[in-house]
Amino acid sequence: MALTWGSALRIALLLSLLLAGVVACFTLPVEKILKNFLLWVEQDLGPWGPLVLAVAYIPLTVLAVPASVLTLGGGYLFGLPVGFVADSIGATIGAGAAFLLGRTIARSFVISKLKDYPQFRSVAVAIHKSGFKIVLLLRLVPLLPFNMLNYLLSVTPVPIGEYMLASWIGMMPITLALVYVGTTLKDLSDVTHGWSEFSTTRWVNN
């Protein structure tokens, strides 16, 4: 009975976090908050800016909120080399945080969601034979929603090390593309413009 109540409590906690993320996307001026965050990174943090930008990926990824504005912001603020490194590391750390959450306190919840993704069954079987290659291919060719994929992969036997390395390499092309786009933007408002609409669409489609 204690285990059952404990599992229920963990699921309730995860649902509360996800609900908070959804509510924030729909009700709070998230676009303004992100713009102010990027301004803070640009004006006040100096050499610590890239590190803080990378760490900011963790809450967004865990809450399944699209972090593309951070990727664009990395290019805009720091240019291609530094921005790419910061964004690439941040995206990987964020994916790793969601993976670990799904493998621990959120495991029961993630397993309950597997029925919503029947196409993932074949992926889970393939991962038993070649985890690194499958994760890499899923990152390169996103057949499943990116943020949900972090959690779905957490209930497979792929080792955390292989998952992180494959995710890091597989996400490089899209990260590089977005960072480059960020370097071409003329104003910080261009980085965050339309983010709310994009984020809302992703939530609805996912």
From TrEMBL:
Pfam families: VTT_dom. InterPro entries: TMEM64, VTT_dom. Residues 65-183 form the VTT domain. The keyword Thylakoid does not apply. It is found in: Cell membrane. It is a multi-pass membrane protein. The chain crosses the membrane at residues 12-30, 51-70, 76-102, 123-143, 163-181. Keywords: Cell membrane, Membrane, Transmembrane, Transmembrane helix. One of its GO terms (cellular component) is plasma membrane. It comes from Eucalyptus globulus (Tasmanian blue gum). This is VTT domain-containing protein. The lineage of its organism: Eukaryota, Viridiplantae, Streptophyta, Embryophyta, Tracheophyta.
